[in-house]
C-alpha cells in the first residue's frame, strides 16, 4: 500500500486551481505525479535538492558490513519517484529551501519509507519490488526484516541531529505506521465499518508519513507555524487521495496506465475501496447482486470469475461512488492549502490535487 504513490503512472490532463481544465506541462521525472512547477527558480531548487538527497541516501545507508550495505542500498538504487522527499522540498519553498537541515529531513523521511517497504515485502511474501527481486526473495525474510530495522535506525540517527522535535515526530510517525499495519493485519473488528476501517489504515500507513514529510519541509525551511500545520494537513489528505486513486486504477485502467495488470487486487483478495463499497451496497439490480456474490468468495483466482467481476465493477455504482470519494479528498487537500501564500509553490501543490482527481475520472 505504502508504495503506491511511488509507482503511479498516468497521463497528465491538467487543471487549474480554479477548476477550469487545460493541458499543461509537468516536470520530467515527476510526469507520473502530474507535478507542475511553473517557476524556473522553484524547479531548480526542487530538482537540485532532490539530487542532493539522492547522494545522501546512498552514503547514509553504508555500513561496515558489506552485506548490510548491499542489502540496504538495494531499494535505494532501484529508484522511485521520491514522493516524500519531494513533499519536503515543496514544503521548504514556503521558507528557505537552502536551509542546512532541509536535505537531512528529506533523507529521514525516505529512509523511514524504505524501511517500511522491506517489512511490507516480508509480510506480503513479495517476489518483486520496483522491477527488481525483493530483498526478502534475494536475501531471506530475516535479512530483509533486519535491514528494514537498520534503515529505521539510520533515520533516527539523522533525525537526532535535527533536534528533539524531529526525533519525536519521526517516532510518532513510525508508531502510526505500525498501528496501521496491525489494523490492516487484524482486519475490522466486530461492529467496525469496513470502509472506515480501510480509510483509517490508509491514513496510518500512507497519510502519516506524507504528512510528516510536508511538515518537515515547512519546519526545516523555517516557514511560519501556521504554514507548517497547513502543509501537514495537506500531506495527509493528498496521501489518502493518491492511495484511493490507485484502488480505482487497478480496476478501471489499462496496465500501461496503472503500472500493473488490471484487477491485481481482486485476484489477490485485497479489499480496496470500490470492492468495499460494492459489498456494502444494498442495490437490488441483477448486476449489483451478482457482483456481491462473486466478491464474497474472496480472492478471485479463477480467470472467468475474475474477468466477470472486473467487468461488473467497471460499470458499477460502487466505482462511481469511489471516484466521488477520491475527488472529495483531492478537494479537501486543496482546501488545506488555504493558509499558504499564493504563488508557484502553492500552485505546485495544487497541481497534485488536480492530477489525483483527473487520473480516475
From TrEMBL:
Chain intervals with Low complexity compositional bias: 7-20
Keywords, sorted A to Z: Magnesium, Metal-binding, Transferase
PANTHER family registered for this protein in UniProt: ALL TRANS-POLYPRENYL-DIPHOSPHATE SYNTHASE PDSS1, GERANYLGERANYL PYROPHOSPHATE SYNTHASE
InterPro entries recorded: Isoprenoid_synthase_dom_sf, Polyprenyl_synt, Polyprenyl_synt_CS
Disordered: region residues: 1-26
UniProt cofactor(s): Mg(2+)
Protein name, per record: Polyprenyl synthetase family protein
One matching Pfam family: polyprenyl_synt
Gene3D superfamilies with a match to the protein in the record: Farnesyl Diphosphate Synthase (1.10.600.10)
Organism: Micromonospora cathayae
Lineage per the UniProt record: Bacteria, Bacillati, Actinomycetota, Actinomycetes, Micromonosporales
Membership in a protein family: Belongs to the FPP/GGPP synthase family.
Amino acid at each position: 500500500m505504502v508504495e503506491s504513490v511511488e509507482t503511479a503512472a498516468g497521463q497528465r490532463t491538467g487543471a487549474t486551481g480554479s477548476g477550469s481544465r487545460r493541458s499543461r506541462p509537468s516536470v520530467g521525472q515527476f510526469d507520473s505525479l502530474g507535478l507542475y512547477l511553473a517557476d524556473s527558480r522553484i524547479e531548480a531548487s526542487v530538482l537540485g535538492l532532490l539530487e542532493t538527497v539522492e547522494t545522501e541516501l546512498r552514503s547514509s545507508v553504508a555500513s561496515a558490513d558489506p552485506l548490510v550495505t548491499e542489502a540496504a542500498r538495494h531499494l535505494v538504487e532501484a529508484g522511485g519517484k521520491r514522493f516524500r522527499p519531494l513533499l519536503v522540498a515543496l514544503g521548504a519553498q514556503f521558507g528557505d529551501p537552502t536551509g542546512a537541515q532541509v536535505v537531512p529531513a528529506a533523507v529521514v523521511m525516505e529512509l523511514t519509507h524504505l524501511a517500511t517497504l522491506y517489512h511490507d515485502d516480508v509480510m506480503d511474501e513479495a517476489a518483486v519490488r520496483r522491477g527488481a527481486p525483493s530483498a526478502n526473495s534475494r536475501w531471506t525474510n530475516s535479512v530483509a526484516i533486519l535491514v528494514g530495522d537498520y534503515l529505521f535506525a539510520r533515520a533516527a540517527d539523522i533525525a537526532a541531529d535535527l533536534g528533539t522535535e524531529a526525533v519525536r515526530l519521526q517516532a510518532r510517525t513510525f508508531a502510526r505506521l505500525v498501528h496501521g499495519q496491525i489494523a490492516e493485519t487484524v482486519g475490522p473488528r466486530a461492529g467496525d465499518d469496513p470502509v472506515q476501517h480501510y480509510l483509517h489504515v490508509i491514513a496510518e500507513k500512507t497519510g502519516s508519513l506524507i504528512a510528516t514529510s510536508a511538515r518537515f519541509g515547512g519546519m526545516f525551511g523555517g516557514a511560519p507555524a501556521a504554514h507548517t500545520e497547513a502543509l501537514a494537513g495537506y500531506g495527509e489528505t493528498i496521501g489518502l487521495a493518491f492511495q484511493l486513486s490507485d484502488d480505482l486504477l487497478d480496476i478501471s485502467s489499462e496496465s500501461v496506465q496503472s503500472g500493473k495488470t488490471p484487477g491485481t487486487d481482486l485476484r489477490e483478495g485485497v479489499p480496496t475501496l470500490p470492492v468495499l463499497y460494492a459489498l456494502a451496497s444494498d442495490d437490488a439490480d441483477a448486476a449489483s447482486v451478482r457482483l456481491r456474490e462473486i466478491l464474497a468468495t474472496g480472492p478471485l483466482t479463477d480467470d472467468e470469475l475474475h474477468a466477470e467481476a472486473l467487468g461488473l465493477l467497471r460499470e458499477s455504482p460502487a466505482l462511481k461512488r469511489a471516484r466521488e470519494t477520491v475527488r472529495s479528498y483531492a478537494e479537501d487537500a486543496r482546501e488545506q492549502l488555504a493558509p499558504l501564500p499564493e504563488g508557484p509553490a502553492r500552485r505546485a501543490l495544487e497541481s497534485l490535487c488536480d492530477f489525483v482527481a483527473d487520473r480516475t475520472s
